[in-house]
Structures
1.
Amino acid sequence: MFIVDNFRLQTFANGYNFDYLSLMNTEKTCLDCGSVIHGRADKKFCNDLCRNNYNNQLNSNSYNLVRNINNVLKRNRRILEELNPTGKTKTTRERMAAKGFNFKYLTHKYDTQNGKTYHFCYEYGYLPLEGDEVLLVKREDKGE
Ligand SMILES: [Zn+2]
């Protein structure tokens, strides 16, 4: 008993405010259901059911939303890059749409002094012109 108290005293003296004894008694719990896990030290789930359940949760809802929008933005950027190898050219909305361009998503807008609004996906941008025509541009500078 004296030894235990002495050990606690030393840990406090060292500036640690947690209890080493309860830390050593901490049992590993399943990441999915929270049940205590027995077995190997690197085990994270009780069984395959809990593992699958946990991974399915990761693949749903908000995680999926962010991933899907990121994929749309990356695809939009790739399409603009393909259609605009020189850095400035003209195309049509129809050609962009045919490649799978999603007009709903962009990273930012840029308003010029004469009232035009460029739509950007990262460094690649486009400006809607007359009718179906679109001017494609590329920003050489990084950031704003
Ligand atoms: Zn479990």
2.
Amino acid sequence: MGTSIDIRGELYRYYDGEPQRLREHVQRVCTLALELGKSHDLPEVEVETAALGHDLFRARSNDFLCRQASHYGIKRSDWDAAPILYHGPLAAAYLYHEHGYTQADVLLAIACHTNLSRNSAMNPVAQVLFIADKIEPGKPKGYNDEIIQLAKRCLSKAAAELIRYIIAHIQQNESYKVPQDLREALEVLILRSSAENNWQPAKSRCFMT
Ligand SMILES: [Fe+2]
Ligand SMILES: [Fe+2]
């Protein structure tokens, strides 16, 4: 476990200089993440810090993201074609190195918020952030209300349902491949969820295949 320093005030101030669209997105993610976190008695400070920190570098240029990824030693050759993928890991590295923030669950949640991952799939703070980031009220409506209600009962099941939806959407509408991190997160969630009673994926939905 890391220290429990509270950097929320600094994070709120950070967004003063960022685009309005990003500020509003982060605020909506915060609101929804706190609502979901409250349903599961997650520490408010951790959930809010993860939500505030997740998109610190979302509005930065590809050149900036690649340079900073090199600086912090987190370069991944398979990400150079899509440098935006660095913004989560970079935010976590920045908070760790520049703010001395070491709460591991929160840093992992921030680093993996775009696609979750094998390591973060069962981390409740990461699940809350992943879900809230994808279905906050400013995002296109899918079946967001259903996911929110499911997430209030079980974060793992909601994360799995959401990943199934995202994978189906990518396969049907996008030219890029389904990210490996997303597939691996779903594998973990399915393995863990299959041990629980009374849950079947919503196979009746066409986008759930
Ligand atoms: Fe993001
Ligand atoms: Fe975001």
